[in-house]
């Protein structure tokens, strides 16, 4: 207001010259508007304090506040630009560490199967230690399990078709002979009936072993004391010699019906090889493990067949005895023990016969 003026004629100055306090508020003109505050007080002469000799005028403008605001705006703009650059860099980093690996996993998932549904590729499995790496390793395990399951199904189907082919061939040849030789019809019909029973038994065991894994998960487990339950299971047999060599507290967590299968299948197998000789069954206790040993007096097993005996449809019996056995009993036992964390193996005894060893975690 007083720029380029030689006479200060504002009302606040006039009030001070009249001996009063004067104040005024004015807005600046021009491009940048600000508020100016003016204060004026009278100055008295030394001779008489009632005579006003002049006035003191002070002023304060908000222009400095506007300057601070402009500086703050510039700082905000700078901070915004910095965060914008950081956001772009972070987005690029996320794209490289998350989006790109996820897209890679998606592409691998799309190419894992061929047009016929067979596995042609596998998940590579990242070595990263974050969630993406864990996801890739989980997918790798999942695809491996699926591939093993598909191989199991294919081999299972192939073995089943091969095994069913033999009784069907016998049925066909017997039927043809019956038509050509009426005098042998009763004998051939008995042969047909035997083969039909063999197929029925085989199909029943096939249904059992194919549904084992799906039925395991829903089975109710309970604490079972083998020292108490095993004699009850073996009481159905007449040629069994049982010896409990444990402390009487061999407790395992298992479904009782599965325990009966795991014990009875090898016992039946041993009895069939032992003719009229008794089969020795013993219960022993090792650190954290309950061991059931089944010893027979049969001819033993051929060298190298220790693991083959647990293969589906495999039998080490003479050809004339195979019709009464499907070769699935020990395979079922192994599936049960694998699920419950146990194990089984078979070996020849030095005194003759076989020793079947079953182990359960206590």
TrEMBL record:
Q: Do the record's keywords include Zinc-finger?
A: no
Gene3D superfamilies named in the record = 1.10.287.130, 6.10.340.10, Histidine kinase-like ATPase, C-terminal domain
Tell me what organism the protein belongs to. Answer: Candidatus Thalassospirochaeta sargassi
**What EC number(s) would the UniProt record show?**
2.7.13.3
| Pfam families (alphabetical) | HAMP (PF00672), HATPase_c (PF02518), HisKA (PF00512)
Q: Where is the HAMP domain?
A: 96-151
Top EC class for this record: transferase
Q: Which domain of life is it from?
A: Bacteria
- Reaction catalysed by this enzyme: ATP + protein L-histidine = ADP + protein N-phospho-L-histidine
Cited SUPFAM superfamilies: ATPase domain of HSP90 chaperone/DNA topoisomerase II/histidine kinase (SSF55874), HAMP domain-like (SSF158472), Homodimeric domain of signal transducing histidine kinase (SSF47384)
One annotated GO molecular function: phosphorelay sensor kinase activity
Keyword Transmembrane helix listed? The answer is yes
Give the record's keywords alphabetically: Kinase, Membrane, Phosphoprotein, Transferase, Transmembrane, Transmembrane helix, Two-component regulatory system
SMART domains cross-referenced by the UniProt entry: HATPase_c, HisKA
Q: Which GO terms describe its cellular component?
A: membrane
Where in or outside the cell? Membrane
Q: What is this protein called?
A: histidine kinase
Q: TM spans, by residue?
A: 76-103
| InterPro entries according to UniProt | HAMP_dom (IPR003660), HATPase_C_sf (IPR036890), HATPase_dom (IPR003594), His_kinase_dom (IPR005467), HisK_dim/P_dom (IPR003661), HisK_dim/P_sf (IPR036097), Sig_transdc_His_kin-like_C (IPR004358), TCS_sensor_his_kinase (IPR050428)
Please list the residue ranges annotated as the Histidine kinase domain: 159-362
């Amino acid at each position: 207001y007083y720029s380029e003026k030689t006479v200060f004629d504002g009302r606040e100055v006039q009030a001070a010259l009249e001996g009063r306090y004067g104040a005024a508020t004015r807005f600046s003109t021009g491009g940048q508007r600000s508020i100016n505050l003016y204060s004026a007080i009278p100055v008295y002469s030394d001779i008489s304090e009632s005579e006003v000799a002049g006035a003191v005028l002070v002023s304060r403008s908000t222009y400095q506040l506007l300057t601070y605001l402009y500086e703050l705006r510039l700082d905000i703009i700078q901070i915004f630009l910095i965060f914008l650059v950081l956001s772009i860099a972070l987005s690029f980093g996320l794209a490289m560490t998350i989006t790109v690996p996820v897209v890679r996993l998606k592409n691998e998932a799309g190419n894992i199967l061929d047009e016929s549904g067979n596995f042609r590729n596998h998940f590579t499995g990242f070595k990263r230690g974050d969630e993406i790496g864990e996801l890739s390793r989980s997918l790798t395990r999942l695809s491996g399990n699926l591939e093993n399951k598909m191989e199991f199904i294919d081999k299972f189907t192939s073995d089943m078709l091969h095994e069913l082919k033999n009784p069907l061939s016998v049925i066909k040849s017997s039927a043809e002979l019956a038509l050509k030789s009426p005098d042998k019809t009763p004998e051939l019909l008995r042969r047909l009936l035997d083969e039909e029973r063999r197929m029925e038994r085989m199909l029943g065991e096939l249904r059992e072993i194919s549904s084992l894994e799906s039925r395991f998960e829903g089975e109710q487990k309970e604490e079972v004391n083998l020292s108490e339950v095993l004699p009850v299971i073996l009481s159905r047999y007449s040629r069994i010699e049982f010896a409990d060599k444990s402390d009487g507290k061999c407790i395992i967590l298992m479904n009782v019906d599965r325990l009966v299968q795991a014990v009875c299948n090898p016992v039946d197998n041993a009895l069939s090889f032992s003719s009229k000789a008794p089969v020795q069954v013993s219960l022993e206790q090792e650190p954290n493990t309950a061991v059931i040993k089944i010893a027979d007096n049969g001819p033993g097993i051929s060298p190298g067949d220790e693991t083959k005996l647990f293969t589906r449809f495999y039998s080490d019996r003479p050809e004339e005895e195979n019709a009464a056995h499907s070769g699935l009993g020990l395979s079922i036992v192994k599936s049960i023990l694998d699920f419950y964390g146990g194990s089984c193996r078979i070996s020849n005894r030095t005194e003759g016969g076989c020793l079947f060893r079953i182990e359960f975690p206590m």
